[in-house]
Amino acid sequence: MNKKILLLILISCFINISFSQEYFIKYTEDEINIDGIEDEIWTDIIESSDYWQWRPTDSLKAKNQTNFKALYDSKNLYFLIKSYISANQFTVYSLKRDFETASADYVQLIFDTFNDATNAFQLQTNQLGLKGDLLVSNGNRDPRVDRNKSWDAIWYVESKIYDDFFLTELKIPFNQLYFSNNTKKWRFNMYRSDTYGQEHSVWSKVPQNQSIGNLAFMGNLIFEKPLENQKKPIALIPYINILNGKEFSAKSRVDRNQIGIDIKVPIANSLNLDFTLNPDFSQVEVDDRIVNTSQWEIKLPEKRQFFTQNSDLFSDFGTSRDAQPFFSRRIGISTNKDGELIENRIISGLRLSGKINENTRIGLLNVLTDQDINNEIAQNNNTLLTFRNKVSKGSNFSFFFLNRESLKEYSFSRNKEKYNRVIGGEYNLASGDGKWFGKVFLHKSFRPAKTDNNKSISSGFMITRNTKKNLIMFYSAYVGDNFRSDLGYYRRYGMYKFEPNYRFRIYPNNPKIHEIEFSHYAAWVFRTNLDNKYEGNIHYSQIQLKYLNTSRLSLQRRQTKTYLYNDFDPTRSSDSTPLPKNNFYDYVDYIFSYKSSSRNIFNIDSSISYGSFFNGEKFSFYNELAFRRQPIFNTSIKLNFDSIKLPSPYSSKDIWLISPKFEFTFSKKIFWTTYIQYSSQLEDLGINSRLQYRFAPLSDLYLVYNDNYFTTNSIQPRFRSINLKLTYWFNI
User: Fold this and answer.
1) In 3D, which of 696, 20, 566 has the Cα closest to residue 295?
2) What are the distances in angstroms from CA 155 to CA 11, 66, 105, 174, 417?
3) Which distant-in-sequence residues (6+ apart) come within 8 Å of 621 by Cβ?
4) 200, containing H or E segment
5) Separation between Cα atoms, residue 29 and residue 36, nearest integer Å
6) CA distance 240 to 203
7) How many CB atoms are closer than 10 A to CB 548?
8) In the chain, what are the domains?
């Protein structure tokens, strides 16, 4: 029996090794001209090929192969990539940096320079030689949350299209990446999306149930000579912003000339210090309007670059839905005396982040926000210290200390608001084969007010088993009655939640359908601050068909049971009668969704739902219609409609959200985006138009126009502004 087990282990190891690619990179003294042409220097360099399909299947070689060659000198890493095509057609949405890759054509290179299967650098390009660069965290198991586009590096790429292939040449300066001194090996993978060939392919084989960029599945780059650390420059990024505006309700002008600076200082090869003084985020894309018919606060994504860089070190604690102790959007967004969320000025910020050795990463974030006496907002110092140590490839233990503290005494402040502190520890698990991942966490908060220490903790666990056909997940979270995190995101305090989740996948041998997925999600919630009273549950069942041409079709059934502890009006009307508290509501709805192929010049993403809703009924539809004239012009319009019908005397209402968007990318340097949003629920109409000119590497000129209107009874102007912002990147 032992011999059989040993034999199985050896066979398994052989299989894993057999699909682990390696490429030996030769050193050169010659600097290579980047022009998308295979020059003589590449002639005798060994070519790596044998790409595997990821989709539609993971058991066959790619139909359209991708081959590459690589060289390096003392300062740069070079790649020559030949991507074969079956048709001289491709899908691209714009010429922007960090271009959209979902259902588009691309070639991506991913470098795990510390060989830890946790963090990596990712570069992406396509037939037009566009640039995209991202930071990868958490093993890249879920690209929707584990990829950060805020990182911008200086590198070079050129592409040329030939009859049956396109050729891409890259030059990547070593001083843009971080790695250990004298290393000779990086973990590496390269993958490609070929929309008209209807396949995704990878250099080092990845199971199709895993994310194509999962860091558990990588080959190796072996360097001929050890790599030496490169001196990294100090970066100074000053800005000037000139704003002219008018507040119509107050009949006042808003004229502001603002200057500030960002400074980036390399402390060591893998450790960086970032400092911002008087930051301005006026050029950041506006938030999407959201229709909210639930009891809970809507969580909007962070878009401010200072907070998104290295965000995995700071924001990956707890769970994003129920128990997230730090959420950066809380900084600079405060609640005024009327309970409304308003923007609060950030005076300065400091961030220290990176590796201090092969196994340990640290992070320090400190942000000072200004006081606002009129709105009864105190000046606060906000600090987050984090420590993360690798246990094994993909697995780590982490610790954090979080402190929000008022710097002054205010007449409007209560003593319990003087400070709020949270400490916590977590263990993050990821198996080497990508089949197991999860986490366990325990957090404790501290406030001036005396609280029951046993009820001032938050804890939870999540474990997931992901195989080719099955995904099984169990999740549980507890938030104590007296636990508080002023800089975190919590839907409710004093609760216990349990969630199981199951997915079953079928990969049919069908020329059109790639995958059929059956899934069921459930959750039960109890309120520990109300004698463990049962709050409700949700059951969500779905069947989804994923087609090779990137279109999708799904049917869902959702059953909800909820207990209202407070009066609640789902229409959020100002003069309505709310649903009464201390009652259970049980309702069911059905959702049909369809998304057409992204290869189409005109495409649609649509869903329709109908069913009971609290003690009434609700009909909803969501449609996004999009048209592109690639790569110059993209336009789309989102139409959201919710019709809520509740019995008298409660409110009934039709809610509209209309959002057209127009995007011109005139070149790789000039972009113009206009975003219009109308919400009948918020009684608001907003226009944001932004012209961007990237005149030098990582240096931009922005012209931004904002216009906002009340739409309560008629369209009345609310606020209008135009601002000109110039940023320039200096290396010293």
Assistant:
1) 566
2) 42, 21, 20, 10, 47
3) 606, 607, 608, 609, 639, 640, 641
4) strand 199-202
5) 20
6) 45
7) 17
8) 21-227 (2.60.40.1190)
Widest pairwise Cα distance in the chain? 86
CA distance 586 to 612: 8
Q: Which two tokens stand for residue 324?
A: 């997230």
186-218 confidence digits (pLDDT tens):
999 999 999 888 899 999 999 998 989 899 999
- Asked whether the CA dihedral 33, 39, 41, 46 is positive or negative, the reply is positive
- Render 495-507 in DSSP notation, one character per residue: EEEEEEEEEEEE-
Residue type, 670: I
Non-local (6+) Cβ contacts of 101 within 8 A are 108, 124, 132, 193
Q: Give the CA count within 13 Å in the CB-facing half-sphere of 579.
A: 24
Question: Two tokens at 704?
Answer: 């931004």
Question: Which residues face 724 on adjacent strands?
Answer: 242, 703
Among 411, 412, 350, 354, smallest CA distance to 381 is for: 350
Residue type, 37: I
If DSSP codes are grouped into helix, strand and coil, which group holds residue 455?
helix
Q: Three-state DSSP class for 234?
A: coil
Cα 336 to Cα 378: distance, rounded to the nearest angstrom: 10
Q: Which two tokens stand for residue 132?
A: 């995209």
Q: What's the predicted TM-score (pTM) here? A: 0.88
Give the DSSP per-residue string, 646-674: --TTS--EEEEEEEEEEEEE-SSSEEEEE
Q: Give percent helix, percent strand, percent coil of the chain, each to the nearest 5.
A: 5, 55, 40
What tens digit of pLDDT does each residue of 47-96 get? Answer: 998 899 998 988 899 999 999 999 999 999 999 999 999 888 888 888 98
How far does CA 459 lie from the centroid of its chain?
24
Beta carbons within 10 angstroms of residue 52's beta carbon: 20
Taking the alpha carbons of 583, 458, 138, 57 in that order, is the dihedral positive or negative?
negative
Beta bridge pairs of residue 596: none
Nearest one of 486, 145, 136 to 328, comparing CA atoms: 486
H or E, element range at 173: strand 165-173
User: In what helix (H) or strand (E) does residue 4 lie, and over which residues does it extend?
Assistant: helix 2-18
Determine contact, residues 306/113, Cβ cutoff 8 Å: no
For residues 211 and 111, give the distance between their C-alpha atoms in angstroms, rounded to a whole number: 16
Contact 348, 367 (CB under 8 A): yes
Average pLDDT, integer, range 444-469? 88
Distance, C-alpha 283 to centroid of its chain: 19
Structure tokens at 653: 């209402």
